[in-house]
Design brief:
Elements (H helix, E strand, L loop, with lengths): L11 E5 L3 H14 L4 E6 L2 H11 L3 E5 L7 H9 L11 E6 L2 H10 L3 E4 L4 H18 L13 H12 L11 E6 L2 E6 L5 E4 L4 E4 L4 E4 L3 H7 L5 E5 L2 E4 L3 E6 L5 E5 L5 E3 L12
Parallel strand pairs: 1-2, 1-3, 3-4, 4-5
Antiparallel strand pairs: 6-7, 8-9, 8-12, 9-10, 11-12, 13-14, 14-15
Helix pairs in contact: 1-5, 2-3, 3-6, 4-6
Length: 278
């Protein structure tokens, strides 16, 4: 094996599909339209995909929407909860699907993309150009074209309901049962300004009450209305209606101001796109 340590490397991707022939066909098409993209690993199901993302920390993940054990949408939810840092941002998501109804929603939301089975060269080229623009934006090589109207979190909720055939509108939490001192209180979810977690507890902050629950953020994300609560950090959810401003600290990090409180909430790099238009 030759030493490529001094050779500039292209973006890195993981490909997840339970059908081997589909993986081979997509890999071949990608090589045609984006030869610089490195497929560093392949997964046969959603669980493998999540583990491979943890191991390889790619720039991009291709996820088949319907896979055994853990669907592509559920895998994307877990990937979206992984910690990022200064050396790695959470990967861009491209869903692989045979169903137009999923594809159209993913495309229109603009926070991820899709490839229809079987992968056609012309459509894949469109996807590749969109992904290249988003990767350039993440690396600071391009300016945003406009604010994102949707969030990945919101899209995943919607797609998950469709994939699981639950039907009807999702049912979100209306009340939080939390410890306040020695008592248990029922707190209306709409009154919560933000949730912020440490290793054991999640703090529930309202304008007048600070309470604790044992439910982690990764569970709350699936139980709260994503139109009302935005995830801005792997440990933080904020009520959109409670946001009263965005600022930066001396290190350049975005900070969210919350109505009625002096406390500021840090925005991790993977979620800064939420405030591009603010």
């Amino acid at each position: 094996m030759s030493d490529t340590s001094d050779t500039p490397q292209g973006p890195r991707a993981i490909l997840a599909d339970d059908e081997r022939l589909m993986r081979e066909q997509l890999r071949s098409r990608i090589a045609e339209v984006w030869p610089e993209l490195q497929i560093v690993a392949e997964a046969k199901n959603g669980l493998e995909a999540v583990e491979l993302v943890k191991e390889h920390r790619p720039d991009l993940v291709f996820l088949d929407i319907r896979m055994p054990g853990l669907t592509g949408v559920e895998a994307a939810k877990q990937i979206a909860q992984l910690p990022d840092d200064d050396d790695w941002l959470l990967p861009e998501i491209v869903f692989i699907t045979a169903y137009d109804q999923y594809a159209v929603e993913a495309f229109e939301q603009g926070v991820c993309d899709y490839v229809l089975k079987p992968a056609e060269r012309e459509r894949l080229l469109v996807t590749v150009e969109r992904i290249k623009k988003r990767l350039a934006l993440r690396s600071g090589e391009a300016e945003p074209e406009g604010p994102s109207t949707g969030t990945l979190q919101q899209l995943l909720h919607s797609l998950s309901a469709r994939v699981n055939n639950t039907g009807g509108a999702p049912q979100y939490l209306q009340w939080i049962q939390a410890s306040v001192g020695q008592t248990i209180q029922m707190i209306p979810v709409e009154d919560v300004l933000f949730f912020i977690s440490d290793e054991k507890y999640t703090r529930v902050q309202t304008p007048t009450v600070e309470a604790l629950i044992r439910k982690p953020i990764k569970e709350l994300v699936d139980e709260l209305d994503p139109k009302l609560f935005w995830q801005i950090h792997r440990s933080t959810l904020v009520n959109v209606k409670a946001i009263n401003g965005i600022s930066r600290d001396f290190r350049g990090r975005q900070l969210v101001g919350v109505r009625g409180l002096e406390e500021k909430l840090e925005v991790s790099r993977s979620y800064t796109h939420l405030f591009k238009g603010m």
